[in-house]
Protein backbone atom coordinates (compact mmCIF):
# COMPACT_ATOMS: atom_id res chain seq x y z
CA UNK A 1 0.00 0.00 0.00
CA UNK A 2 1.34 3.44 -0.90
CA UNK A 3 1.29 6.03 1.86
CA UNK A 4 2.56 9.57 2.43
CA UNK A 5 4.24 10.13 5.79
CA UNK A 6 2.80 12.87 8.02
CA UNK A 7 5.80 12.89 10.36
CA UNK A 8 9.30 11.45 10.48
CA UNK A 9 9.05 7.71 11.15
CA UNK A 10 12.20 6.04 12.37
CA UNK A 11 13.57 3.42 9.94
CA UNK A 12 10.93 4.32 7.33
CA UNK A 13 11.32 7.91 6.18
CA UNK A 14 10.70 11.58 6.72
CA UNK A 15 7.66 13.79 6.54
CA UNK A 16 6.30 14.06 3.00
CA UNK A 17 8.01 10.90 1.72
CA UNK A 18 5.94 8.52 -0.39
CA UNK A 19 6.54 4.93 0.73
CA UNK A 20 5.24 1.56 -0.31
CA UNK A 21 4.57 -0.46 2.87
CA UNK A 22 2.79 -3.67 3.79
CA UNK A 23 -0.99 -3.38 4.03
CA UNK A 24 -1.10 -4.53 7.65
CA UNK A 25 1.66 -2.13 8.70
CA UNK A 26 -0.24 0.75 7.16
CA UNK A 27 -3.69 -0.24 8.48
CA UNK A 28 -2.65 -1.32 11.97
CA UNK A 29 0.22 1.07 12.79
CA UNK A 30 0.73 4.05 10.51
CA UNK A 31 -2.84 5.13 9.74
CA UNK A 32 -4.39 4.78 13.25
CA UNK A 33 -1.55 6.84 14.76
CA UNK A 34 -1.78 9.49 12.01
CA UNK A 35 1.83 8.85 11.08
CA UNK A 36 0.80 8.49 7.42
CA UNK A 37 -2.12 9.04 5.07
CA UNK A 38 -3.14 6.88 2.10
CA UNK A 39 -1.64 7.89 -1.24
CA UNK A 40 -4.37 9.34 -3.47
CA UNK A 41 -4.98 12.47 -5.52
CA UNK A 42 -6.42 14.47 -2.60
CA UNK A 43 -3.54 13.77 -0.22
CA UNK A 44 -0.95 14.36 -2.94
CA UNK A 45 -2.48 17.80 -3.56
CA UNK A 46 -2.38 18.61 0.16
CA UNK A 47 1.29 17.63 0.44
CA UNK A 48 2.19 19.57 -2.72
CA UNK A 49 0.83 22.67 -0.98
CA UNK A 50 2.90 21.94 2.14
CA UNK A 51 6.06 21.05 0.19
CA UNK A 52 7.80 24.40 0.82
CA UNK A 53 7.04 24.20 4.55
CA UNK A 54 8.37 20.63 4.78
CA UNK A 55 11.56 21.53 2.89
CA UNK A 56 12.12 24.53 5.20
CA UNK A 57 11.89 22.21 8.24
CA UNK A 58 14.31 19.74 6.67
CA UNK A 59 16.77 22.55 5.90
CA UNK A 60 16.52 23.77 9.51
CA UNK A 61 17.27 20.25 10.75
CA UNK A 62 20.33 20.11 8.47
CA UNK A 63 21.62 23.43 9.84
CA UNK A 64 21.00 22.34 13.44
CA UNK A 65 22.84 19.07 12.92
CA UNK A 66 25.77 20.87 11.26
CA UNK A 67 26.17 23.20 14.24
CA UNK A 68 25.75 20.28 16.64
CA UNK A 69 28.43 18.40 14.72
CA UNK A 70 30.91 21.26 15.20
CA UNK A 71 30.16 21.46 18.93
CA UNK A 72 30.43 17.69 19.42
CA UNK A 73 33.72 17.41 17.56
CA UNK A 74 35.15 20.24 19.67
CA UNK A 75 34.11 18.49 22.87
CA UNK A 76 36.21 15.77 24.46
CA UNK A 77 34.96 13.27 26.99
CA UNK A 78 37.22 12.15 29.82
CA UNK A 79 36.06 9.11 31.78
CA UNK A 80 37.70 7.82 34.94
CA UNK A 81 36.87 4.14 35.23
CA UNK A 82 38.06 1.52 37.71
CA UNK A 83 40.76 -0.52 36.02
CA UNK A 84 43.30 -3.21 36.81
CA UNK A 85 47.03 -2.55 36.79
CA UNK A 86 47.31 -3.91 33.23
CA UNK A 87 44.85 -1.28 31.91
CA UNK A 88 41.80 -3.54 31.55
CA UNK A 89 38.59 -1.98 32.79
CA UNK A 90 36.48 -3.70 35.42
CA UNK A 91 33.33 -2.38 33.70
CA UNK A 92 33.17 -1.69 29.97
CA UNK A 93 32.39 1.75 28.57
CA UNK A 94 29.18 1.46 26.55
CA UNK A 95 27.13 3.87 24.48
CA UNK A 96 25.00 4.50 27.56
CA UNK A 97 28.05 5.70 29.56
CA UNK A 98 29.09 7.99 26.70
CA UNK A 99 25.51 9.34 26.42
CA UNK A 100 25.51 10.17 30.15
CA UNK A 101 28.88 11.93 29.82
CA UNK A 102 27.57 13.95 26.87
CA UNK A 103 24.44 14.80 28.86
CA UNK A 104 26.66 16.23 31.64
CA UNK A 105 28.35 18.42 28.99
CA UNK A 106 24.93 19.72 27.86
CA UNK A 107 24.29 17.55 24.79
CA UNK A 108 21.08 15.51 24.62
CA UNK A 109 22.08 12.54 22.49
CA UNK A 110 20.23 9.22 22.52
CA UNK A 111 22.41 6.21 23.24
CA UNK A 112 21.07 4.49 20.13
CA UNK A 113 22.73 7.14 17.97
CA UNK A 114 26.17 6.52 19.49
CA UNK A 115 28.47 3.94 17.91
CA UNK A 116 31.58 2.77 19.72
CA UNK A 117 34.15 0.74 17.78
CA UNK A 118 33.77 -2.88 18.87
CA UNK A 119 30.47 -1.94 20.64
CA UNK A 120 32.29 -1.38 23.98
CA UNK A 121 35.56 -0.01 25.29
CA UNK A 122 37.29 -2.49 27.58
CA UNK A 123 40.68 -0.89 28.19
CA UNK A 124 42.30 2.40 29.11
CA UNK A 125 43.22 4.70 26.21
CA UNK A 126 41.95 7.22 23.67
CA UNK A 127 39.05 6.25 21.42
CA UNK A 128 36.62 7.83 18.95
CA UNK A 129 32.87 7.41 19.21
CA UNK A 130 30.70 8.11 16.16
CA UNK A 131 27.39 9.88 16.65
CA UNK A 132 24.72 9.70 13.96
CA UNK A 133 23.09 13.04 13.30
CA UNK A 134 20.44 14.05 10.76
CA UNK A 135 20.44 12.16 7.44
CA UNK A 136 23.96 10.89 6.69
CA UNK A 137 25.83 13.39 8.88
CA UNK A 138 27.97 11.98 11.65
CA UNK A 139 30.21 13.48 14.31
CA UNK A 140 33.26 11.94 15.94
CA UNK A 141 33.76 12.51 19.66
CA UNK A 142 37.09 11.83 21.36
CA UNK A 143 36.71 9.63 24.42
CA UNK A 144 39.66 9.43 26.80
CA UNK A 145 39.37 6.54 29.25
CA UNK A 146 41.67 6.82 32.24
CA UNK A 147 42.31 4.38 35.07
CA UNK A 148 40.75 5.30 38.36
CA UNK A 149 42.78 4.10 41.31
CA UNK A 150 40.71 1.66 43.30
CA UNK A 151 41.50 2.13 46.99
CA UNK A 152 41.90 -1.01 49.02
CA UNK A 153 42.17 -3.41 46.10
CA UNK A 154 45.65 -4.68 47.06
CA UNK A 155 44.92 -5.00 50.81
CA UNK A 156 41.68 -6.83 50.04
CA UNK A 157 43.61 -9.42 48.05
CA UNK A 158 46.08 -9.92 50.90
CA UNK A 159 43.21 -10.27 53.40
CA UNK A 160 41.69 -12.98 51.21
CA UNK A 161 45.02 -14.78 51.13
CA UNK A 162 45.31 -14.51 54.94
CA UNK A 163 41.79 -15.89 55.42
CA UNK A 164 42.62 -18.86 53.22
CA UNK A 165 45.82 -19.51 55.19
CA UNK A 166 44.14 -19.31 58.65
CA UNK A 167 41.78 -22.29 58.23
CA UNK A 168 44.73 -24.39 57.12
CA UNK A 169 46.53 -23.56 60.41
CA UNK A 170 43.45 -24.48 62.47
CA UNK A 171 43.00 -27.79 60.68
CA UNK A 172 46.57 -28.86 61.34
CA UNK A 173 46.26 -28.93 65.21
CA UNK A 174 42.93 -30.69 64.92
CA UNK A 175 44.55 -33.38 62.83
CA UNK A 176 47.37 -33.76 65.42
CA UNK A 177 44.82 -34.20 68.27
CA UNK A 178 43.05 -36.95 66.33
CA UNK A 179 46.34 -38.70 65.73
CA UNK A 180 47.10 -38.89 69.51
Task: Describe what you observe in this structure.
The protein has 180 residues and is of the alpha+beta class. Helix content is 43%, strand content 26%. The chain has helices at residues 23-30, 41-49, 51-74, 95-104, 153-179; strands at 2-5, 18-20, 36-38, 76-82, 88-93, 114-115, 121-123, 125-132, 138-148. Strands 4-9-8-6 form a four-stranded mixed beta sheet. A three-stranded antiparallel beta sheet has the order 2-1-3, covered by helices on one side. A hairpin with a 5-residue loop joins β8 (125-132) and β9. It starts with a strand and ends with a helix. The model is unreliable at 153-163 (pLDDT under 50).
Summarize the structure.
With 180 residues, the chain is an alpha+beta fold.
Total strands: the figure is 9
Report on the biggest sheet.
Answer: 4 strands, mixed
Q: Which radius of gyration do the C-alpha atoms yield?
A: 29 Å
* Percent range for β-strand residues: 25-35%
Residue share in helix:
40-55%
* Element string (H = helix, E = strand): EEHEHHEEHEEEEH
Shape, per Cα inertia axes: elongated
Beginning-to-end CA distance, first to last residue: 93 Å
| Alpha-beta content class | alpha+beta
Q: Which strands sit side by side, in order, in the main sheet?
A: 4-9-8-6
Amino acid sequence: MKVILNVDVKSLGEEGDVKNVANGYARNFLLPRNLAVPYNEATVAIFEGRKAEIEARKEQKRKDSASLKEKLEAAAIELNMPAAANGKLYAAVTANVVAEALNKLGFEIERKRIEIPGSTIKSVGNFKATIKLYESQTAEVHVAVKAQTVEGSAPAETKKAEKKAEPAKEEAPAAEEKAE
